[in-house]
UniProtKB/TrEMBL annotation:
Family, per entry: Belongs to the adenylate kinase family. AK3 subfamily.
Binding residue positions for GTP: 16-21, 127, 136-137, 200
Key word Kinase present: yes
Free-text function comment from the UniProt entry: Involved in maintaining the homeostasis of cellular nucleotides by catalyzing the interconversion of nucleoside phosphates. Has GTP:AMP phosphotransferase and ITP:AMP phosphotransferase activities.
Name recorded for this polypeptide: GTP:AMP phosphotransferase AK3, mitochondrial
Region (NMPbind), start-end ranges: 36-65
SUPFAM superfamilies: Microbial and mitochondrial ADK, insert 'zinc finger' domain, P-loop containing nucleoside triphosphate hydrolases
Keywords (A to Z) from UniProt: GTP-binding, Kinase, Mitochondrion, Nucleotide-binding, Transferase
Cellular compartments annotated: Mitochondrion matrix
One GO term (biological process): ITP metabolic process
Limits of the Adenylate kinase active site lid domain: 127-162
Reactions this protein catalyses: a ribonucleoside 5'-triphosphate + AMP = a ribonucleoside 5'-diphosphate + ADP; GTP + AMP = GDP + ADP
Amino acid sequence: MVIQRIFRAVIMGPPGSGKGTVSARIAKTFGLKHVSSGDILRANIEAQTELGLLMKSCIDQGQLAPDDVMSRLILSDLRAMDRSSWLIDGFPRTVSQSEALDDAYSVDTVINLNVPFETIKQRLSSRWTHLLSGRVYNVDFNPPKVPGFDDVTGEPLAQRDDDTPETVTRRLKAYQTQTEPVLEYYRSKGVLEIFSGTETNKIWPHVEAFLHSKLSPIKQKVS
Ligand code: AMP
């Protein structure tokens, strides 16, 4: 019997670096709960909640949502899963958000997907998403089984409004100025692990091996 302590991880990387895909694989292989700030915001927009309506223009313009809103949103989700191991994707995106997270939880590991900006610009223009689940496909290297439709639900795929070339440039700029300092923050705490590459399928085995050294895969786990 393997009893695991609670493991708390963050995944970082520029928009389009493969965080969503790698997070889904981590969640499946190691049983961590996947919390995606972008998916939570998009679900709010889709459901036309007050928060969703307020945040939509920020997101569509490639700007970050306000720190206090994001910290409250994510921390309240995390409180609801206090006894679970989790992986947060898309939060924290600023040093102020990392401090808010730190005040509530200590993070065991921060996985950073270090993918060159040129690769990302190219990739985002061929990215298609199942908006409700956040599942992503790429017409070049990870196409859906039926073009234009989600493999799991069969529902139509869409291009995200914020994947246009101008918005992508703005999101990468926001990443450089506001999110890169978060990497320094975690480096100084000794929890940052960097995985570099241009293809998710080549980066993944390294992430998987690293997590194997920290965690047991789900099949050995006893809940
Ligand atoms: P993502 O799917 O993670 O790329 O997030 C899509 C958009 O949601 C971002 O471009 C931001 O506008 C917003 N967003 C997501 N997470 C955060 C966050 N932690 N702080 C501020 N804005 C965020």
